[in-house]
């Protein structure tokens, strides 16, 4: 039906011509400036191979038998030992200057696939190494990751997961107050292994990346930490270069942050300088120099009674000489959390609408530091004097502090690091050591040199 016929019928029904004209303008405005983005529009054709799970996907309950757990543990140990980097023939070998994007993965594969789609659209992504650190082993997740062709990637696996320890520490211990049976006991530990795993996994992953890869002893690049429910913008690495450059002009900047709560009218070309604190933990990035300083005060991470790795890290930073760590952050986030959306698909559609007309890849970037009449704003942000709880079990402290936590294989490259071989010291042997330490007196425990 042509436009003239539509106008004729409208006039016959008594609709003024100017109303038809306004309606036509509105339709054109919606089509040009605010297009209705469909799933196919959000995901380019060449990237739709990564979208394999719909919004209704659910994991079926699966309990592994003892023999299956032993076999899986051996598989994970072998994969962590091999540390195979894929796509090196296409993009070259990894060097000590290669930047890394490290994704912590559990089981939210529907959101993970959209993170992969967003990573594929990052400019210069072929220059980085993409690392997936899993706390759950499943062939479907591994197959999704193995299909990546746009950059180098590798997969590592957290060796103390609930999947490998379903009914004992460091998983859900039946003697804990919160157990799989839901029992409540007196004089029991209030820990919940389903919650403590995330903090343990983050610490193990960081140790593995900075201490146990083939190039760790000479590593000079930057590591960007991501979660499976993140979504990254195309100019992430473009802004990383500007942020790294700002560290040379503003001494004392050790942290980079690409994520923050989204708000309206934020500038794409502005970097803010302030003391780091949550919620700037999305897209957190730093190098090995800062990691050495963090390791030196690791007890303030491992003993802080809080399930959050970010607040535990903030507690460790307060023991630095400055009492805090300065960061440079993008005012407009380049890492957006999809956890507040019903699904990864819904998040991607909304983010695509946000980016219509966005001024990414700014040619000039400004770094600002806020001051008030009383001095610099956000100088020396302090964590709560006490954590939010959930991390008071001595076994969690010992597992976090023990050198076994840092690796499952011996490190043949960094001879200065203190490492142990999982091939000679089994996880069960470690638990025995932990139980022995738990029977020590309080005075002896206080005198122990954990680092």
Automatic annotation (TrEMBL):
One of its GO terms (cellular component) is Golgi membrane. Pfam families: MGAT2. GO terms for biological process: oligosaccharide biosynthetic process; protein N-linked glycosylation. It catalyses: an N(4)-{beta-D-GlcNAc-(1->2)-alpha-D-Man-(1->3)-[alpha-D-Man-(1->6)]-beta-D-Man-(1->4)-beta-D-GlcNAc-(1->4)-beta-D-GlcNAc}-L-asparaginyl-[protein] + UDP-N-acetyl-alpha-D-glucosamine = N(4)-{beta-D-GlcNAc-(1->2)-alpha-D-Man-(1->3)-[beta-D-GlcNAc-(1->2)-alpha-D-Man-(1->6)]-beta-D-Man-(1->4)-beta-D-GlcNAc-(1->4)-beta-D-GlcNAc}-L-asparaginyl-[protein] + UDP + H(+). It is a single-pass type II membrane protein. InterPro entries: GlcNAc_II (IPR007754), Nucleotide-diphossugar_trans (IPR029044). Its main location: Golgi. Belongs to the glycosyltransferase 16 (GT16) protein family. This is Alpha-1,6-mannosyl-glycoprotein 2-beta-N-acetylglucosaminyltransferase. It comes from Spodoptera frugiperda.
